[in-house]
Every structure is written in structure tokens, then in C-alpha cells.
Amino acid sequence: MDKETRTYYIKLVKFLAEALGRNYEIVLHDVSEDGTNIAEIANNHISKRTINSPLSGFAIEMIKNKIYLERDYITHYKTSAKNSQIMSGSTFFIKKDEKLEGLLCINHDTSAFKKISDEILSLGNIYDNTYELTEQDNKEYIKFDLEEIVEDIIGTSIDNFKNKNLKPKEKQKMIADLYKKGIFNVKGVIPKVAELLNISEPSVYRHLQKIK
Questions:
Q1: How far is CA 109 from its chain centroid?
Q2: Which of 43, 90, 136, 155 has the CA that lies 20 to 30 A from 201?
């Protein structure tokens, strides 16, 4: 994303945050050759994320699968954070000549509405599970650091994984698997993968060059 485009969307983030109110978190992700990072975030009291937080696994998957070539935006998918807030997410793909330059995301915190509806239903002794999130329904879970993202993909903690003493070919396969999952679209993930596999960062880059 060039400087002019970045400045424009940063202003848009601030405008949307003020226009929509504090129940809407607005996030601008900048997609570049070095990876994707948060360029601006407003009303981050909702997810507790910062400029240094990584993409969600759902966003990584959308970029890897190039959903942006098929659609200009995706709206009203379910999302949640560590504090179990129930949110509705929408993402607008920022593109230039079909090349993805960024993501403008809006997360609407609907937990207050759920609380009110639960209280109203309880007064009439009525029970409704409409708002309950299941593993299948929940499209996005917001992670707070790179370690969580990597652990989610490998299916275990990094400490447990390090004890496996993988052979060189197994490490190559792991890098290939992580590449297929789109993890290398996240800025700053190379050092974390190198630590995970107990190899140098240049070695990770060499494996990636072979894969590409």
C-alpha cells in the first residue's frame, strides 16, 4: 500500500469509528511484500489488539485463498476474541489492478445486545440459543500474538512441538505446510518459525525460495 492510499484509509478508520460509535472496532491491515500488519486500529478496547497484533487465522486464510479475486468484500461473519465477546465482522478488500493492498475490517461488538435479549427472554421464561457460537459457526477467532497463530496451525503448543526433534526433511515439510496455510503472510513470523524448528532464519528463507 503506497503512502497516499495508507493515509486515506487511516483517515477513513478514524471517521468510521466516530460515526459508528464505540461498539465498532475498525482495523486497517496493510498488505506488503514484507507481510501484513495493522496500520491503524480504532476502538481497540473491544479486542484489546494493538498495532503490533497479527492477523486473525480467518484473514490469513482469505488472503491465501485469494478470496479478494472473487469478491470485493465479505460481510456479517461471526467472530470472537479471548474475552468471549460476540461480534459480527465485515471485511473490505483494498485492491489495485486485482492486487491486494490491504484489508479494512469492521467488528461490531454485539455482546451488549445478547445480554439485553437474554434478560428479556428470562423474564418470560423463554430460552433462545440463537446467539450461541459453535465451533462450526464461528468463522473468526482473534489471536493476540504470533505464537498463538502458529500454535493454532500446528495444533499444539510451541514448547511441545520443540520436543519432537524433527529431522531435516520433516522440518522442510513443516515449512511447506505452514506456507500452504498462509502463515508467512503475517509480518514478523519468520523468526518465530525459525525458533519453532530450531533452525536459522536464513534457512527458513532458503526453504521458502525452494517452495516458491
A1: 16
A2: 155
Greatest alpha-carbon pair distance for the chain in Å reads 64
The amino acid present at 41, given as its one-letter code, is I
Cβ atoms of 60 and 185 closer than 8 Å: yes
> How much is the pTM?
0.67
DSSP assigned state of 18:
H
Helix ranges restricted to H, 30-89: 57-64
Q: Which of 17, 18, 59, 23 is nearest to 38 (CA)?
A: 59
Q: For 92-126, how does the pLDDT look when each residue is reduced to its tens digit (9 = 90+)? A: 999 998 899 999 999 998 877 767 767 776 776 66
User: At 67, which amino acid appears?
Assistant: I
- Nine-digit cell at 12? 477513513
Tell me the β-bridge partners of 2.
none
C-alpha 112/C-alpha 128 separation (Å) is 16
- Letter for the amino acid at 122? S
Q: Which of 138, 29, 128 is nearest to 81 (CA)?
A: 138
Contacts of 189 (CB under 8 A, 6+ apart): 35, 54, 146, 149, 150, 183
